[in-house]
Amino acid sequence: MIAILKHGTTAQQAEPLIAWLRNMNLDVHISEGQEVTILGLIGDTSRVDAELLSSLEIVESVKRVSEPFKQANRKFHPQDTIIEVGNAKIGGGHFAMIAGPCSVESEEQIIEVATAVKAAGADILRGGAFKPRTSPYAFQGMKGEGIRLLLKAKEVTGLPIVTEIMNIRALELFADVDIIQVGARNMQNFDLLQELGKTEKPILLKRGLANTLQELLMSAEYIMSEGNENVILCERGIRTFETYTRNTLDLSAVSVLHDLSHLPVIVDPSHATGKAKLVPPMALAATAAGADGIMVEVHNNPACALCDGAQSLTPAQFAELNAKVGKLREAMV
Fold it and tell me: Does the predicted TM-score (pTM) go above 0.90?
């Protein structure tokens, strides 16, 4: 349920109403916009008399929210959420290019790639320290040492970093990481999501391989229900009957998620397609669809990459792509 307060209602005037609602064991989410203030009521709202609430002098209208996701719902928070990390902003008209290798392989490699993507205009450095792999015999990442090397690359370039967490036990290793990524396979690891909700760090939440958009938003709700509202949604392709691409990139998700939620939405065309030659056109398509950012894999020597070399761009290819994205965004204004 949401209660829309009348224009000009002050915080002092709203305070008794908020206290009354909280006394009914409801969580009250306050969203203050330029025109109106919206009170989002979370909990057992069946006990709330909607007619009584709407009759109050400061209340403009009362509406029940049918969707199960509440805090992620745009009805609760009409203005776009903007996530800030370092000098980068994501959402609300701000766009971020996130680039870096699938996995951190050595200090030389990550610093070389970080320096190259920074020079090409990247806003955030990505790199895998913990790598979920289908085969237990494949390279699993450098783990804690990989995070140390990412932080070294951040020190050299000034780029904020994003890297994936696999389980709760590793959380303390992410103390200095700017954005914690939850991968597709962990999208419904609810214990992990709730623990991340207790932090204040931005969480980049990837859509699962076979999950609906409502399920993605419900996973975001798990994080937000614990107090962390800094969530970035990521469309990275879903599994369909098509075998030519690694996954099928669902670009309609960008518009649908923006309609349903105030959270920023980015697109990962690298994991979606699995082929480097398909990454630029899909990145441009995602930009045109209104994505708040693009996350691509970049490697200084894709042929020798320990993980996902086939879908990795070279630094030169990334620089070319970033320039095209910039021109496209200018044309869209």
Answer: yes
